[in-house]
Specification:
Elements lengths: L4 E5 L7 H13 L4 E4 L7 H10 L5 E4 L2 E2 L5 H14 L4 E6 L3 H7 L7 H13 L14 E3 L4 H10 L2 E2 L6 H11 L4 E9 L4 H12 L6 H9 L4 H4 L5 H7 E3 L2 H13 L4 E7 L9 H6 L5
Parallel strand pairs: 1-2, 1-10, 2-3, 3-5, 4-5, 5-6, 6-7, 7-8, 8-9, 8-10
Helix pairs in contact: 3-5, 5-6, 6-7, 7-12, 8-11
C-alpha cells in the first residue's frame, strides 16, 4: 500500500448482494486504494473477497480481519495465493485471533493464547507446501495487532499491522515498534455531522459490540482510559476518541493525526448519524482521494 493512502473499512455482514456491489463500486469510484471487510457471523472471508474483486477492476480488497480459527494455514495460503493470481495482486489477507466469545462460544473451539496461536498459525502457513507452480513467493499479509508483542510479531513475520479501535497515540506507539519498513494500516471511525448528540449516539450504538471484548477493553486501558470512562457504553471523551465527528475539516484533522503519527494507510469507517447500519455514502464521497 502506498504511503499516505486512504481506504474504507466497513462491516459487510448485514449487506445484501446489491448493497455489497454498491459499496465496493462507490469506494473504487472515489479513488480509495483498499476496501477492508470483516469476518464474523455472516460472509466467509475468501468467498466475499472473490465476489467483491469480481465486481471491481482496480480496487484492492483486504480482510479486516480473517479469523485464524475459521480455516487452517494451508487453506489461508491457498485462498490468498489464488485470489491474487486470479485478480492481479489486489488482495491482502489481514489475520486476527478474534475474541474468546466468538471462538469458544460461537465456533466451539478452544481459544488459545493469542500470541502463541498466531505464531503457530503463521508457521503453519509457511509450511503449507502448496504446488510450487501455484504458490506465491511474496504474500500480502498483515496482522490485527494492538499490544506490543503482537505488533512485534507483525513486524517480524508479516508485511505489517492493522490496529482497530485505536487513537493516534496508539498509532505512534505502533509505528515505533513496527519501524519504517512495515505497513501500519489504521482503522478510524468517522461520522460526518456537526450535531454532537447525533454523533455520540451513533458512536455508542456502533461501539456497543466491542465493549465486552477483552482484547479491545484491555487496550483502551493501556491507552489511558479509565474503567469509569468505559462504563455504560463509554463517556464522551472515549466516544469522541473512537469516532471522529464534525465538519470535513475537523475529521481530516484526525485522519492527518494518524498519518503524522506514522500510519502508512488509514481506512475510514463511515458511520451514519442516524439509526441506519448502511454505509454513509456522503462521507465516502466527501473524503474520496479521487474527488
Amino acid at each position: 500500500m502506498k504511503h499516505g493512502s486512504l481506504g474504507v473499512w466497513f462491516s459487510t455482514n448485514g449487506l445484501d448482494t446489491a448493497e455489497l456491489v454498491e459499496l465496493a463500486q462507490a469506494v473504487e469510484k472515489g479513488g480509495y486504494e483498499t476496501l477492508w471487510y470483516p469476518e464474523a457471523l455472516a460472509y466467509e472471508a475468501m468467498s466475499l473477497g472473490s465476489f467483491l474483486l469480481s465486481q471491481t477492476s482496480r480496487l484492492k480488497l483486504a480482510t479486516g480481519i480473517a479469523n485464524i480459527y475459521a480455516r487452517d494455514g494451508m487453506a489461508a495460503v491457498a485462498g490468498h495465493d489464488g485470489l491474487n493470481k486470479i485478480y492481479g495482486g489486489r488482495f491482502t489477507l489481514g489475520l486476527g485471533v478474534s475474541h474468546k466469545p466468538m471462538v469458544s462460544g460461537r465456533r466451539n473451539q478452544a481459544y488459545g493464547k493469542p500470541l502463541t496461536a498466531m505464531r503457530e498459525y503463521l508457521e503453519g502457513m509457511e509450511k503449507a507446501g502448496l504446488d510450487p507452480k501455484f504458490a506465491l513467493d511474496d504474500r500480502n499479509v498483515v496482522l490485527a495487532a494492538l499490544g506490543p508483542k503482537m505488533l512485534e510479531l507483525a513486524r517480524d513475520r508479516t508485511k505489517g499491522a492493522l490496529p482497530y479501535n485505536v487513537t493516534p497515540e496508539h498509532t505512534a506507539m505502533a509505528k515505533e515498534i513496527l519501524g519504517p519498513d512495515r505497513l501500519l494500516c489504521v482503522e478510524q471511525k468517522i461520522c460526518l455531522t456537526t450535531d454532537a448528540a447525533a454523533a455520540r449516539a451513533s458512536a455508542k450504538r456502533n461501539m456497543k459490540r466491542y465493549m465486552p471484548l477483552p482484547n479491545y477493553y484491555n487496550n483502551w486501558l493501556r491507552l489511558g482510559f479509565s474503567e469509569s470512562e468505559l462504563a455504560d457504553g463509554g463517556n464522551d471523551r472515549f466516544l469522541d476518541a473512537m469516532v471522529a465527528w464534525g465538519s470535513e475539516a475537523q475529521i481530516r484533522e484526525r485522519i492527518d493525526a494518524h498519518f503524522a503519527a506514522g500510519a502508512t494507510h488509514v481506512c475510514i469507517q463511515p458511520l451514519r448519524p442516524d439509526d441506519s447500519w448502511a454505509p454513509c455514502f456522503r462521507a465516502i464521497e466527501a473524503f474520496a482521494p479521487g474527488s
